[in-house]
């Protein structure tokens, strides 16, 4: 792979093609590398080694684990450009966005390196004079994760950081579309001092088979999954057989709301950032836009003008802001959503263009009705449907009319409305006059069918620890 200075990041690519998955660049279609796959026996062995290694990892002082994670963080920063290039070549996002993701992913390692030293228990007043009550926190054991292609580094570090900080071992199955970033990130962890059996990246002949192994293996005590609600539901059901801990970050259908008292120019910039980052392929992307009728035309005009400045192309080229979608199935699915919306009465603000390959023109649709199919589906592409509303009550009812509850956004300068709407929206995260809400210091997660559990913040460690109650009698 050209232009990679730290060739040790690619040591895994020496694997023979017959025992590896081929990884292609969605911008060009060419093969950029291979990643090793394991058969069922090897996967079982990985889990067993993780179980053994976890015992020794958990015995290390929290400060020692913290120092190792800090070194991993430093190596991620030192190799930012190489990691970003690997990501762009296999995933498609522009280099600037890829570098941003490396920094975002690294921030979780830094955060949980610090939190490793702060997994406090409690001293509780005893019920009687001769008793003392204490709680401590202990690692749950072997944790595993299944991560998606859209954020191939950050979705791993957001899970691996707290798991390793807590004293767990961690086995992750990345997407077959973007495994190179995962192996490269893990290589830096090994260079930082994380034992290879404590952190393992695995691929298999079948994603479904790996999921079945993760959910049924008795040595695995925790599964973390980021992906679709449909798959998450199946994995949760499978985990129920032996009561595994789970955390699920699932589908979204984020409303982006512009009230009549909003700063329209700020709302346009927030909408641009929220909707079109990663070509609209994020779970927290604005999915449907509700704009008050009195500012509807102004917002649509300014929003579309801003969208037309976005440059579509290969992510390694200068000035590109929108890369390709991940594969042909994704492109066809997004195009089908657009076509159906137009059939139901939506109108593209500017003329639609069909682009070659996996590239798609960013599009703003006006005259969209809340009842249209496009409003009820997670688009996962560069399409922005805009709906008009009249009253706050009508808006809240429409915004909450979905099975999902991950992220939401609104723009208003009325403090009374801000509090009222923020509390009324049925979502785990609310961006108020802000289009980018993800950060390592805040809890990330949803409600309803968007998942359970929280990642990041001080709550992230709790997902990988058990609370043990100690009762001292005869005092």
TrEMBL record:
Highest taxon listed in the record's lineage: Bacteria
Signal peptide coordinates: none
Keyword Cell inner membrane: no
Domain called Aldehyde dehydrogenase: residue spans: 19-469
SUPFAM superfamilies reported for this sequence: ALDH-like
UniProt-listed Pfam families: Aldedh
Family matches, as InterPro entries: Ald_DH/histidinol_DH, Ald_DH_C, Ald_DH_CS_CYS, Ald_DH_CS_GLU, Ald_DH_N, Aldehyde_DH_dom, Aldehyde_DH_Superfamily, Succ_semiAld_DH
Biological process, per Gene Ontology: gamma-aminobutyric acid catabolic process
List of catalytic residues: 249
Keywords: Oxidoreductase
PANTHER family per the UniProt record, alphabetical: SUCCINATE-SEMIALDEHYDE DEHYDROGENASE, MITOCHONDRIAL
Family, as annotated: Belongs to the aldehyde dehydrogenase family.
Name the record gives this protein: NAD-dependent succinate-semialdehyde dehydrogenase
Species of provenance: Vibrio gelatinilyticus
């Amino acid at each position: 792979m050209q232009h990679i200075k730290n060739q040790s990041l690619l040591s895994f690519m020496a694997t023979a093609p017959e025992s590896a998955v081929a990884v292609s660049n969605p911008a060009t279609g060419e093969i950029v590398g291979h990643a090793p796959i394991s058969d069922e026996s090897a996967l079982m062995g990985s889990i067993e080694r993780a179980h053994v290694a976890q015992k020794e990892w958990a015995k290390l002082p929290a400060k020692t684990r913290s120092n190792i994670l800090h070194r991993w963080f430093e190596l991620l920063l030192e190799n930012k450009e190489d990691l970003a290039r690997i990501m762009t070549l296999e995933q498609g996002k522009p280099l600037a966005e890829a570098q941003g993701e490396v920094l975002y992913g690294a921030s979780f390692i830094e955060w949980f390196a610090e939190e490793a030293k702060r997994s406090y228990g409690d001293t509780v007043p005893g019920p009687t004079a001769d008793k003392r009550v204490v709680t401590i926190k202990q690692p749950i054991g072997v944790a595993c994760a299944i991560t998606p292609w859209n954020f191939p580094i950050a979705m791993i570090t957001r899970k691996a950081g707290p798991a390793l900080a807590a004293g767990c071992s961690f086995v992750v199955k990345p997407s077959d579309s973007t495994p190179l970033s995962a192996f490269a990130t893990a290589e830096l962890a090994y260079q930082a001092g994380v034992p290879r059996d404590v952190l393992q990246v695995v691929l298999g002949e079948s994603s479904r088979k790996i999921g079945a192994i993760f959910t049924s293996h008795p040595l695995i005590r925790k599964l973390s999954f980021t992906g679709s609600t449909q798959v998450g539901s199946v994995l949760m059901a499978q985990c129920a057989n032996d009561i595994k801990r789970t955390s699920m970050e699932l589908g979204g259908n984020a409303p982006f709301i512009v009230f009549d008292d909003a700063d329209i120019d700020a709302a346009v910039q927030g909408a641009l950032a929220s909707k079109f980052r990663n070509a609209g392929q994020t779970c927290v992307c604005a999915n449907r836009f509700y704009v008050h009728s009195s500012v509807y035309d102004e917002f649509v005009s300014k929003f579309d003008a801003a969208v037309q400045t976005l440059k579509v192309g290969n992510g390694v080229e200068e000035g590109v802001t929108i890369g390709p979608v991940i594969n042909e199935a994704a492109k066809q699915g997004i195009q089908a959503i657009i076509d159906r919306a137009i059939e139901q009465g939506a109108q593209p603000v500017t003329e639609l263009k069909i682009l070659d390959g996996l590239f798609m023109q960013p599009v703003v649709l006006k005259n969209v009705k809340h009842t249209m199919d496009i409003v009820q589906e997670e688009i996962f592409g560069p399409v922005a449907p805009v709906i008009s509303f009249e009253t706050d009550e009508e808006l809240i009812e429409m915004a909450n009319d979905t099975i999902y509850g991950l992220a939401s956004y609104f723009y208003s300068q009325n403090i009374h409305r801000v509090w009222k709407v923020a509390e009324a929206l049925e979502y785990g995260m609310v961006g108020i006059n802000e289009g980018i809400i993800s950060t390592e210091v805040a809890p990330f997660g949803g409600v309803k069918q968007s998942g359970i559990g929280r990642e990041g913040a001080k709550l992230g460690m709790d997902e990988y620890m058990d609370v043990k109650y100690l009762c001292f009698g005869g005092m």
